[in-house]
Amino acid sequence: MAECDVTNLRAVESVAARVQRDFGGADILVNNAGVGSFAAPLHQMPPDAWDHLLNTNLRGVYYCIRSFAPIMIAAGRGHIVNISSLAGKNPLPNGAAYAASKWGLNGLSYSVAEELRRHNIRVSVVCPGSVHTRLSPHEGKDPKKMLQPEDVAHIVAMLVTQEPQSFVSEVLLRPTLKP
User: Fold this and answer.
1) Which of 62, 63, 98, 110 is catalytic?
2) Which residue ranges in the chain fall short of pLDDT 50?
């Protein structure tokens, strides 16, 4: 595991170079960095908040794919898993920028999957519902009924261990009970 600011291309490239140097490559890339803004309608969102959200949730994924895909292409294999949200499938009042970033991430994921499959690189997108994290307050929701981070991790593990002749392009993950 390596940490870096995904909104900084040089930082991401540095991590990719370190992974290549220290581990000889990268078989799996999980793009999970994300921020949210759910306090007000879009027309009240300051432009710098819009930029921060889109730069983290969408541009950060682009930077990571741009930096790690060449390593995977050289190895002739890999799996990229982008963590999106059901907000990328459904309207989200007071979360329009977040929803836009996740709709964009879904489209990016499907297109990159087509670009990289000829290199034996699988690209999947996971769209969980409300996950009990610090991302947002989830007011009025019962945390015990919400998805847990471990639920998302389990799906990622399933995706990256499936047989090599196929890949799941999208997973919609919902809690059993409405939170």
Assistant:
1) 98
2) none
